[in-house]
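Figure S7 source data.
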Amino acid sequence: MHDPFALSERLAGLEAAGLLRRRRSVQRVAADGVRCVSDGRELLSFCSNDYLGLARDQRVAETLADAAREHGAGAGASHLVSGHHREHHALEEELAAFTGRQRALLLSTGYMANLGVVAALAGRGDAVFEDRLNHASLLDAGLLSGARFSRFPHADAAALEARLAGCGRQRRLVLTDGVFSMDGDVAPLGSLADACRRQSAWLVVDDAHGLGVLGPGGRGSLELHGLGPEDVPVLVGTLGKAFGTFGAFVAGSADLVDFLIQRARTYVYTTALPPAVAAATRRALALSIAEPWRRERVLGLVDRFRRQAAQTDLPLADSTTPIQLVLVGEARAAVAASERLLAQGLLVPAIRPPTVPEGSSRLRVTFSAGHTDQQVDRLVDALVEALADASAADREADRRGLSPQGTVPSSVGT
Ligand SMILES: *Cc1c(COP(=O)(O)O)cnc(C)c1O
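Tokens for the predicted pyridoxal-5'-phosphate complex:
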């Protein structure tokens, strides 16, 4: 077949550079949500976003099944046509109450929520400012909006403020992750909000990894910093992480939500979530509130992991969230360590360029309320061993003059 896009050559190029990404088929096999089977082997996963252990909770699954029997498998239309169901509406009201805002609007994914909200609010003639480590969906949203786009140094509110002050545009939108997905740190939301207030910009926080987990009530990184709608007018949350289901929402004022219903193209021109998914999410949200032990448990495991790691020389990034990074350096060593963990039955991805800068490859560990203390201890021991082996192999490869590409297996990681 004639292929002007040279797809097979380009795929071969990625393969040769050790950058081809492959999917692993994974079946979770136990109610804890962390034990799974892949390629016929039992593995322990340290890489889901199921922080509260709700993705495989039987009560949430029963609610999904019951609601599907009652309402069917799909919504049948977009929200503005005839797909807006009472389960969606009730979930929106519950999410508004949970986040302490007037209204919330459900969207199909976090990616679409970010594209929709940013392009609805900002366009040609406006300006968008982003933390340079923002999630790809926020960066894409800023770029696609057509507004003047600039990135500020990571977590640097002073640099942001200087840029805001030097920008003549009338409408300025500042976008940040609440918890950075590849670094695990929490954004300095108090100082970002101060800078935005002084410069009359609006702050948008995507709290995909904070909601349900951080703050005394699990209300996320805003609660952790004591911030409300005055400080952060636009809050984006996802439902496929701590809440264990699927979907996303934007929460804010009644005007914001009414405006998004008119103008967010990723809301208007797409099929509504299945009502059964909304029903299951209502159950998961209620459970996350009724069972605070889930977030206490996952944060307790993080604490245990960091205390155990401190007894070793594992180089951890500064993070107090369930996203923990073991800094390795070279992509080759990170991938080798990940492969060694896999051989021990532990699923821990290596994160390498272009997802992170050259020379800052890392292992990314995420915890869930479904993990046990013993599993955390086993992980620490295995990490110490895998890193020692990987760096020995790396030195050996250097000595023999092997090219980095030649030794990077491409089956694990991002
Ligand atoms: C996962 C994630 C998203 C995307 O959410 P989906 O519902 O999976 O599309 C958006 N922003 C951040 C920060 C995320 O981590």
